[in-house]
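quick one, 122 residues, struct below
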Amino acid sequence: QVQLVESGGGLVQAGGSLRLSCAASGRTFSAYAVGWLRQAPGKEREFVAVITKGGSRVYNVDSVKGRFTISRDNAKNTVYLQMNSLEPEDTAVYYCAATLSWYGRGSSYDYWGQGTQVTVSA
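---
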């Protein structure tokens, strides 16, 4: 069982930065791939980035365009999403999610956090 808790969301002006954190419980956290996904009002949930258990990173290049960086600290059971040059289009609820078997952007996840709101003003 893994429990995920996101933090770090908030209100920021366009061009600003935020760092989201996803803190996990469970001794086997390092065995999971952890992804960040987001959902804006009235839109489908969208893949943002994932980091595998081996540290490989995959991004939704179309959406994040080199502005976001995902990282993990297994000693702290935490995954981060550094978001720079934020745009109003980045406004959404951001979720972290964990899976033992990540195979691509369409992967299903075993555990989800409750989400954290990110709002970017123009």
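The mean pLDDT is 94.
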